[in-house]
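Lecture 7 notes: from sequence to structure.
We start with the chain below.
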Amino acid sequence: EGMVNQFLHGLPGVVQRGSKVLVDTGLEGFDAELLRFYEDYLAVDAQHAIPATSRFCLKPETAPGFFIFMERVKTLSSPPLGVKGQITGPLTQGVGIADQNGRVLFYDERLKDAVTKLIAMKSRWQVEQLLTLQTPSPPMVFFDEPGAVSFGSSAFIGITREQVVAALRECIQAVQASGGLAGIHICANGEWSVALEAGTDIISFDAYSYFDKLILYREPLKQFIQGGGILAWGIVPTSDISAIVREDTEALYTLWHRQFTELVALGLDPSRVLQQTMITPACGTGSIPDPESRKVLAMTRELSDKVRSEFKV
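Predicted structure tokens for the same chain:
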């Protein structure tokens, strides 16, 4: 579906030239279309639910996975305890596509704002759809932000930390205001203070490979957890097939417990940390062969069960 392309529908000026998708601000009528975009945004922002005809809905033509997911969940013999949606975050979306001059959208103040509002409304729409499944716990929507891995490098000169936090916060608040829990997923080592201070409910990280990087942000991490933030520990490896084959539940428990102990040593209540912990794969399993993906899912469940058993939670 394309990490960026599936969420582009509705943004003014989107064109495809050859194999490349870009935003052409030089198109005739672009400014008028941008004005209509903001009119649509203001109209939707004032409504209880986003209409099915809105530019802020996902489309089966560009994001079929979401619709297949919804239909499959409805056919389950019993409803799941919870469901999770996923969307590309505003930073990654804003640097993942450029204008006709090759300049990424996040460098243009107008387009940065439009991209942020597009992602905010599409994430809100996901929450509204997931709520119809009537699961016991609130739906979650995670903002996938691999762009944060390179934030602060020479590739992103001119993009400030404040801009990224503000864009993330706007999207997170859209999820929370519509009744969902917001998460940020960073698949490698990133600028963690951005995620920790953006007001998200959940931070999903690759604990198998990068816990030592996250723990460096001692005070922001401590404040995040004390404020009720949830850590989704991506402790089950997904990026290295040999690691998936090699690891087992006992070894992963040993690794997680060592990390848990190090986190608690910051001065945190162990019971609070446990209550605000999710055990997850390190990243998505979509590109992993079927046998390995099944092992990832099995180890995730087994490890979660073991943590619950060992700590009586």
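Points to note: Residues 184 and 224 are 13 Å apart (CA to CA). The chain has a mean pLDDT of 93.
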